[in-house]
Design brief:
By secondary structure, the chain is mainly alpha-helical. The strands form 2 sheets. It has a two-stranded antiparallel ribbon with strand order 1-2. A two-stranded parallel ribbon has the order 3-4. The longest helix is centred in the last third of the chain and has 25 residues. It is globular and about 45 Å long. The two termini are 31 Å apart.
Length: 187
């Protein structure tokens, strides 16, 4: 699957296949996080950090990869390098971490993860932000508070049982999304 995605991104245009962005990890240490590139080259210079589904910076294949969270697969390399784990609060950019409250800084006590309760709750983040005149403000008001709450809850009470539940639900998410689409189609 990784090879097929790699070839499709390469075929669709110029630029690198992987996006490498600096994120803040455990203990506040910066690291390079890998993702399949889903946006045009230099997208971070064109717009803000939050990406609604109707963002013009998204590539055609990028929309599909994001929809099914396949753009996150290269983060397995971050897991192998010890910078991330499979489950944990999602890593953030330094600009966002700089705004953390003292309580929110507890998120930096654990290794960030590929998936968590907030990733499941907001699997449709781009859809939530679609049509918003200011996606960054909408994110701050509609998504961020609950993401922070779920992340802090994980840091305080995480168990192996929770990690397994999160991994299973994450693995089933693409099937649920396909079912959601079919359910919305006229019979």
């Amino acid at each position: 699957m990784l090879g097929a995605i790699w070839l499709r991104i390469k075929r669709d245009g110029d630029g690198p296949v992987l996006y490498t962005g600096t994120r803040v990890g455990k203990g506040g240490q910066p690291f390079k996080m890998y993702k399949f590139r889903t946006m045009v080259v230099n997208a971070d210079r064109i717009g803000g950090p939050n990406t609604p589904d109707d963002d013009d910076r998204l590539t055609k294949i990028g929309r599909t990869l994001r929809k099914y969270k396949l753009d996150e697969l290269p983060q397995l390399l971050n897991v192998l390098r010890g910078e991330m784990s499979f489950v944990g609060p999602r890593p953030q950019v330094a600009q966002e971490v700089a705004t953390y409250t003292e309580e929110e800084r507890q998120l930096l006590q654990v290794r960030p993860g590929i998936t968590d309760w907030a990733s499941l709750r907001f699997h449709n983040e781009g859809e939530i932000l679609r049509g918003q005149p200011d996606p960054d403000r909408a994110y701050a008001e509609l998504i961020r508070p609950e993401k922070m709450r779920l992340g802090l809850e994980y840091v305080r009470r995480a168990t192996l049982k929770d990690d397994v539940a999160i991994l299973v639900q994450t693995a089933l998410l693409p099937l649920r999304k396909s079912g959601d689409e079919k359910a919305g189609q006229p019979g």
